[in-house]
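Last lecture ended with a question: if I hand you only a sequence, what can you say about the shape of the protein? Today we answer it with a concrete record. The protein is Biotin synthase. Below, first the input exactly as provided, then the predicted structure, then a couple of comments.
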Amino acid sequence: MDALLVRIAERITSGADPLLSPSEALELARLPESATLDILSVAGLARAARKPAAAFTCGIINAKSGRCPENCAFCAQSAHHQTDSPVYPLYDTDTLLRRAEELAANNVDRFGIVTSGTAPSDRDFDALCESALRIGREVKIGLCASLGLLTPERAARLREAGFTSYHHNLETSASHFPSICTTHAYEQDLETVRVARSAGFRVCSCGIFGLGETWEQRIELSQTLTDLGVDSLPLNFLNPIPGTPLGDSPLLPPSEALRVVALMRLLHPEQDVLICGGRSKTFGQWQSWVFAAGANGVMTGNYLTTKGCAFCDDAEMYEVLGLREERS
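The predicted structure:
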């Protein structure tokens, strides 16, 4: 085993921090392919030591789809791109409630309500708060909002409505962001995360890997997340959508994607590391290896505009790996 990995393993077993510095992360990322299994074993050790609780699941609903004014190069819902993505207005409360009930019936821990666009209109925002109040009364499931840019006033209202988590991805590092989106500033995303934290939300934020970023930029994103103090890192992997600027991009090889998971676990040993969009496309038959690489949760069911993994398949994977406890 490489000497760096031995040092990391010793830090894990002794309880020392940090497990991995940014410079060491870059060194680890550049180890030869023959070191991949050793990297995963050390990251898995970190998960077992620092996140020993049963792995969790979350599910989402694309509550309002399409016509987004932002020009994110990966996004099927951008009005700037020609895709086959569905376009529809905000779902009503009954539709959102049925999805929450479906997720709860499948032992999913958290329900994320996601809307397309920079931020909801006042009318849609009011409707979402009303829907959340009803879901909170009728379904036992954690509520997460993913509604774009956030103000302190809206954050307070979402908390009052029963949302306990706010999701807002940075997508990539500050240095790579201008290659991915030019319709809003990176600082606006950072401020949304800060607002959510100040409001008392559990904050879920990370990015998409496979956007043409370098390992240095992946580690840059990680350091930004550390500085922001996020609670959960949802790792997404590019699923190229025809009609978007990145539609012809190659998928990340599974071995490289697993290294991403491992580095994020070692750089964020106390946070949740959740595998989300692009899981089945990127990892294929190696999906269960994300837990060996340090993940402690997955997004189950469908994603925003693409198919995900069936509840029963994920439940079987959790049972086989001994990662799941029944929700109380």
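Comments.
1. The longest strand covers residues 56-64.
2. The chain has a mean pLDDT of 94.
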